[in-house]
Amino acid sequence: MTTKQTHSFQTEVSQLLHLMIHSLYSNKEIFLRELISNASDAVDKLKFKSLSDDTLIEGKEELQIHIDVNKDANTITITDNGIGMSEVEVNKNIGTIANSGTKKFLKSLNETQAQDSNLIGQFGVGFYSSFIVADKVEIITRKAGSKSKKGTKWTSTGKGKYSIESIDRPDFGTSVILHIKKDEKEFLEDYRLRNIISKYSDHITVPIMMVKVSKDNKDIEYERINKANAFWAQDKQDLKQKDYDEFYKSLTYDFEAPLTQLHNRVEGNINYTSLLFIPSKSPFDIWEPKRKGGIKLYAKRVFIMEDNEALMPLYLRFVKGVIDTADLSLNLSREILQDNKVVKAIRKASVKRILSVLEKMAKNKPEDYATFWQEFGMLMKEGVVEDTINKDKIAKLLRFTTNKSKNATQTVTLEHYTKNIQKDQKAIYYITAETYETAKGSPHLENFNQKNIEVLLLSDRVDEWMVSNFREFEGIQLKSIAKGNLEDFDSKEEKKAKEEVAKNFEIVIEKMQKILDSQVKEIKISSRLSKSPSCLIADENEMGGNMERIMKSLGQDVPDTKPILEINPTHSLVKKLKTKIDEDLVKVLFDQAVLSEGGQLKEPAEFVKRINKLIN
To answer: How far apart are the C-alpha atoms of 512 and 576, rounded to whole Å?
Structure first.
């Protein structure tokens, strides 16, 4: 036995424990759900590993979870004979939080959010919920396959430090001992714990055992208190929506019911059952690069693995659920799964089914689809590029806001846009910007607004990437109104008048070019502007200003290109240049164009000086 060592929690863990102990008051009972879920995962992992090494189970055929209450000692003990942990794993799993999304969450947490107990499960830190009801927690564990002397004991009161020591532990697996707070003694009642397990953990496939209540309390006999059957294997005709909602919550730790579920049993060349859920709310870490997926894979009801990209494309990473098939070997690695024909067929069918359900939701339950789009719309925009096979289906599910929309809510479909396209219009027009407000107020829209031409306003962070790769819809090209030459919607009279104006400004443009030669590629009369004096555009095949800013913010190298400055000859400031070429005014016109598209000035102080000078 080694000397007991004391360690400090990682800063984020200390913050989290403080939150658990002081801020989370509602639904305290979920601590048991979290600990049972952890125990179930440990058993599942041992079952899987023992397929290739049966010595790990050390002759124990019954893998179970036991819950024991000691009212005299005020303790609840949750014990599993699952995979267990080594001392190194205890330190790694309990002393730190590896998920960077959790760190971001803690930094942005405010008091209102802190009251919401559903944060526990959402942020993948279920074990720490023990401290909601316990003022001291002990973990006694031994890794399956290790010697009895390799046991580990971890102890903490949740106040910034924990102790860890090596001990003898005859049995592999883990025991979590909760020393219940004085004002939480309701959880020491047998009926209370049974009700919680029935509510949250009835579906757990591992038997959950508690002492059978006897009249004389002399004989200790355990009984199974959960059904311990695979929920997804039940006939959906026998299940109610409430059953699905409770299973979903227990599977995902979400406190809100899903928007919908897809429960299917497929028999034929491939046999499998899938139960997939579309959540009603996006998880906080949906954009984390290392975020785990939500599909668990079973083979003949034996847990194989979860979070495998072979089961579901990346853009559908919000989908949660279970896939269980009899056509997979239990001895599978992630690498083998990537090229497995069965998995590929299941994935293809699942994606098709999900997209079909979303299509029906959009048509029959527009309010539900509006909720879905608000939470997961940007992921679908990823999909229209990533999933070339289903690109057309996904494109019809996309929603946008336009210059004709009343607000930033994205409701316009590409089908609606093309049905209302103007007679001679040859493109689906769009503009990208960092914010909806910037896009809505862009000077590039002026002529389009004047001629009642609809333009998609794209301000989501994936939009630039999407339109760079998603180029057409039903044969109609998507075109940026901030790039290249646009269609000419002018009448013959308007064209003739503009040609005359352009000729009158040839000398002005030549002199402006000399002043701005280091900043712009070209200066020309604008066909876009009707109110603003100037705007910047890019050549057709060059990077636009918004994309350039995004690339720079990501630390990427950006090609050294110059924009084109367009000027509005009908604007009073531009007309002044016909009388006199004022260098300050020319530079102000350029700086205004930079600002109007959401850019930043290199010399803002000089811009202010020039403005002040012109005003005076």
So the answer is: 13
